[in-house]
Amino acid sequence: MPAVSKGDGMRGLAVFISDIRNCKSKEAEIKRINKELANIRSKFKGDKALDGYSKKKYVCKLLFIFLLGHDIDFGHMEAVNLLSSNKYTEKQIGYLFISVLVNSNSDLIRLINNGIKNDLASRNPTFMNLALHCIANVGSREMAEAFASEIPNILVAGDTMDSVKQSAALCLLRLNRTSADLVPMGEWTARVVHLLNDQHLGVVTAATSLITTLAQKSPDDFKTSISLAVARLSRIVTSASIDLQDYTYYFVAAPWLSVKLLRLLQCYPPPEDAALRSRLTECLETILNKAQEPPKSKKVQHSNAKNAVLFEAISLIIHHDSEPTLLVRACNQLGQFLQHRETNLRYLALESMCTLASSEFSHETVKTHIETVINALKTERDVSVRQRAVDLLYAMCDRSNAKQIVAEMLSYLETADYSIREEIVLKVAILAEKYAVDYTWYVDTILNLIRIAGDYVSEEVWYRVIQIVINRDDVQGYAAKTVFEALQAPACHENLVKVGGYILGEFGNLIAGDSRSSPLVQFNLLHSKFHLCSVPTRALLLSAYIKFINLFPEVKATIQDVLRSDSQLRNADVELQQRAVEYLRLSCIASTDILATVLEEMPPFPERESSILAKLKRKKGPGHLPDIDDARRNVNGSTEPSENTEATKKSSPSLMADLLPTNRPRPASSSPIMLSAGTMGSTHPFTDLLNLNSTPPSGASLLVDVFSDISTAAPAEVCEENFLRFVCKNNGVIYENQLLQIGLKSEYRQNLGRIYVFYGNKTSTQFLSFSSSVTSSDTLKAQLNVHAKTVDPVIEGGAQVQQILNIECVSDFTDAPVLNIQFRYGGTLQNIGVKLPVMLNKFFQPTEMLSQDFFQRWKQLGAPQQEVQKIFKARHPMDTDVTKAKILGFGVALLDGVDPNPANFVGAGVIHTKNTQVGCLLRLEPNTQAQMYRLTLRTSRDSVSQRLCDLLSEQF
Amino acid sequence: MMRFLLLFSRQGKLRLQKWFTPMAEREKKKIIRDMTTMVLARQPRSCNFLHWKDLKVIYKRYASLYFCLAVDNQENELLALEVIHRYVELLDKYFGNVCELDIIFNFEKAYFILDEFLMGGEIQETSKQMVNRSIEASDMLQETMEEYMSKPAF
Questions:
Q1: Distance CA A14, CA A82 (A)
Q2: Is residue A639 a contact partner of residue A628, using CB atoms and an 8 Å limit?
Q3: Chain B closest CA to A622's CA: distance in Å?
Q4: Contact at CB, B1 and A382, closer than 8 angstroms
Q5: How many cross-chain Cβ pairs, A to B, lie less than 8 Å apart?
Q6: CB contact, 8 Å: A14 with chain B?
Q7: Which of B53, B104, B139 sits opposite A6 (nearest CB)?
Q8: Using one digit for the tens of pLDDT, what is the confidence trace for B53-104?
Q9: Strand partners, A359
């Protein structure tokens, strides 16, 4: 046991710790601990009042036991007693216990708060510091409620000691992070900014942390800090190293404060004031210059501190992204670090360069380092450095170097660490697709991926290659030929069998002319892999076989024999058995025409962003995002209605229902029946099989959209995927990505409307600088007034905030306003645009009328431009009730008994705008035989007729 | 901000844990396990930084102890490394050539020193003199050695 050199120790505690250390086994340790716990319990319960010292000692022992990883369920009361003691050492231990073992027991919290209150009022700086520390350590809501209004006063009071000011600033910062709503802004905020001028650098450092956090949330309130921060920074970087006394760290002047100031400045764009801006530029140049000076010390601390400031300066330069010379200088500096002997610096240089690569000013300069980065990939001993090199190659890739980078990544993949293989596979797949000039290269690359790292090729990747091959007929023949050749390898990865089966099933005919790849050869090749494959792959192969029967009548008998064999027809796996049975029957009874229709080539997939990208983002994203079930994700990554998937998974009695095998990628919208896919061609990607009356619960997977590109700060494309879903309904989820969910509730009366927009933070981290506004095109501005209330700039993790939009329709309109959302998540700016579902039909008032009135008005509106008619195919099952509900949801009254044909639907309503009212009549005639509709609209204004017809015709 | 600081031995024995954000005990135990396995598996002369979920992990070994600090993604890694070093210097100053045993037997002191240096996940006082002064000041408030020796052992 080491002697305690000074201060007090607790002998009993030291003895106990020694005992524990001497325990030979885990059991002995637990025994000793239980003995001690029993001892302490009896002391605490004993009749004799314990003196402060013993209480302190026992509480300390409990703390030690807790820190060993055991649960402690008593002693809190004694700790609170200690905390209220007048003796510093007892108080200190009491606070420590409470800080480490936070307990939400509300009675206790009240007692603790009481103790804290007394200490804060004590004017004794040591006690005040302990109390402030405890608040910051626990940071619970109850504490925030009790003290959030008091701490700002302590912070800015003229007579507060410096050390207390520091604690108060950081305590306030902590409370602001956990319960921002309880920290009142006020007169103190302006005075906090002036702490940047404080004499005491410790106070300035703490205050800068506080201001940075506050400025991230409400930048406008803290704009004045920019000039003060620049001034302070300038004084530091130009100071001689001894000026700052103990705030100089290994010959570097106040590195922590410098970094904090540079961080604060990253909350803002470059200063507008020219003088200020040039002063800041000077500072940044000085920092860059210092990096070139010979080191003042050989100690690693010196270079670390110096480079910490340098990297932060580079971050600010990148953040401003406005001074090309600085950007290029930064890039060159990082280039030097790429070859530095310090591993840490190489790592950081690679990391920083990733962000530089996305700036237009420095992208080209970054690219000049490509050889060094590739070399790093090959020679770095440390996997995390190699990982950064992969990231940087990915970031610097463009059309000019894509082939080289993809080739290097592929060759690295052969030896890459298992932990990062999947990510590399995703990156290669994305780059190959993004920069493919000719798609043969793309196909080769993906097949290479499967060959080298087949186990790491996720479904997204091989789905995507199929999607691309199906959509691009120039590459289909090549793809068929290449997979055919690849399949000839004696051992090939199962993923290759899947791709091969799918592609040959669709396009095997393109290479069947060559006798070396005749239908029979193709079939035998595929079938030679069959027995080595897992059930899902076999299921896919069976589907490929039935497609072969359609493509090549000459192998029909061979394939039927295979399907008929016991190993298929009596397969233990119900999925395989069912497929074999059904496909066999289908091949026997269906005519060639029917076969050709049922087994027609897959229709092109709707052009969508790659689901691989979404996967990569998911990987990169915060670790605690809910995993989205991959199995339910189809080739486009849009999640299918779950009922659909279940239907196909269940052994459905319908022959047709199972024709499209579950494990084959399919177009997003296709129902499980391939027939419909064949006859309807490429359908709208978001026609929703369930739709309408069932407003999905918020967060329902139905509406999940994983594609919207939110990880870049580039102006977001406007998302309008869900727009049409809101034509006939007012509530639901309009947008959702990994981070954010936006739900709407809307109500309309006459020409006025109100939308409640709910922003839900799906992560556990705050969104900062959150703002959302509504913009309209110039034409629309005159037709529709939208007023958006402001929202709180911070959304806590897991929290939801509401924004109210007030809408006034001035005249009829066709455009839709756009909701623009911006916020900061984990340092990157997110930008989202969503088309707001405010459509003309929302301002409908239904009108009931009798048959003869209807026809009279119908005739009055007989001018050719007043009527708009559209004939279209049904996209959903033609269900009368659903149709009725949609028409009602559209806003008109449904008039029964008007149309002589009871199957037809007739509706009437009036559109209310500020300037005028427009009467509308509509008629919808379904033709179930042909699966078609005819929709007719008559209104007094042609633009209204047209718009309403366009909106409504998309709904059936 | 800093999220947590862990001190553990080469055998993976945890010597000190400081959490700057509230977390469930189970979550803490999982993190401790992840950190020890991850850091102890690193080859010598690797870089001192790791990515873990959405955090950066900065670690450094001093004699038999690993110091492992997790910070938000936008934080400065090199400076985090110097936060660790500054803490080691403070411990060193206080204990005089600090070793693992000092931290085991005086864990409460290690916490007090840390509290003078960091608060709420931010650095509170970067001056070594200032921190030392306040630690000494609080030690002045403690009992004397004689008082200590006269205390009962149990």
A1: 20
A2: yes
A3: 5
A4: no
A5: 202
A6: yes
A7: B139
A8: 889 999 999 999 999 999 999 899 999 999 999 999 999 999 988 999 999 9
A9: none
Q: Where residue A685 falls among pLDDT bands split at 50, 70, 90? A: very low
CB atoms B126 and A64 under 8 Å: no
pLDDT, one tens digit per residue, over A898-926 is 888 888 889 999 998 888 888 889 899 88
Flag whether A403 is marked binding: no
DSSP state of A246: G
For residue A233, give the H/E element and its range. Answer: helix A225-238
The reply to whether residue A171 touches residue B119, judged by beta carbons under 8 angstroms, is: yes
Choose among A714, A804, A698, A823: nearest CA to A766: A823
Quick: pLDDT tens for A558-610: 999 999 988 888 888 888 999 999 999 998 888 888 888 888 888 887 776 66
With 0-12 / 13-18 / 19 or more C-beta atoms within 10 angstroms meaning exposed / middle / buried, residue A235 is middle
**What is the percentage of chain A residues whose pLDDT exceeds 90?**
37
Q: Which two tokens stand for residue A450?
A: 């499967």
| For helices A459-471 and A494-507, angle between their N-to-C axes, nearest 10 degrees | 20
Residue B12, domain extent: 2-150
Could you give the domains of chain A? 433-598 (no CATH), 718-838 (2.60.40.1230), 841-954 (3.30.310.10)
Could you tell me which residues come within 8 angstroms of residue A47 by beta carbon, excluding any fewer than 6 positions away?
none
Report whether A386 belongs to an annotated binding site.
no
- Kindly tell me the sign of the dihedral angle through the C-alpha atoms of B80, B81, B84, B90: negative
Residue range A166-190: mean pLDDT, rounded = 89
A12 annotated to a ligand binding site: yes
Residues from chain B that touch A136, judged by Cβ atoms under 8 A, are 119-120
> Mean pLDDT of all residues in chain A?
83
Beta-carbon contacts of A748 under 8 Å, excluding residues fewer than 6 positions away, are A730, A754, A807, A842, A843
pLDDT at position B151 is 55
| Residue pointed to by tokens 């870049």 | A712
> Residue B76 is part of a domain; what is its CATH number?
3.30.450.60
Q: List Cβ neighbours of A41 (8 Å cut-off, separation of 6 or more).
A: A74
* Residue A627 predicted with pLDDT over 80: no
Q: Is A102 on the interface with B (CB under 8 A)?
A: yes
Strand blocks (E) in A179-296: 248-249, 252-253
Give the DSSP H or E segment for B119: strand B118-119
Residues 6+ apart with CB under 8 A from A886: A692, A728, A955, A956
- pTM score of the predicted model: 0.66
Residues of B in contact with A174 (CB under 8 A): 119-121
Task: Please indicate if the annotation marks A11 as binding a ligand.
Answer: yes
CA angle B100, B106, B107 (to 5 degrees): 80
**Phi and psi (nearest 5°) for A269?**
-70, 170
Percent of chain A scored above 70 by pLDDT?
88
DSSP A819-881: EEEEEEETTEEEEEEEE----GGGGEEE----HHHHHHHHHHT-SGGGEEEEEEE-SS---HH
pLDDT of B147 reads 54
Whether A61 has a binding-site annotation, put simply, is yes
Q: What is the pLDDT of residue B110?
A: 94
Residue B53 CA, distance from chain mean position:
21
End-to-end Cα separation, chain B, in angstroms: 41
Q: Which amino acid is at A736?
A: E
Tens of pLDDT, residues A743-777: 888 888 888 888 989 898 888 888 888 888 888 88
Tell me whether residues B152 and A11 touch, CB distance under 8 A.
Answer: yes
Number of other residues whose CB lies within 10 A of the CB of residue A477? 14
Nearest to A526 by CA among A564, A571, A574, A559: A559
How many domains does one find in chain B? 1
Query: pLDDT for A483-496, tens place per residue?
Result: 999 999 888 899 99
Residue B150: helix, strand or coil by DSSP? helix
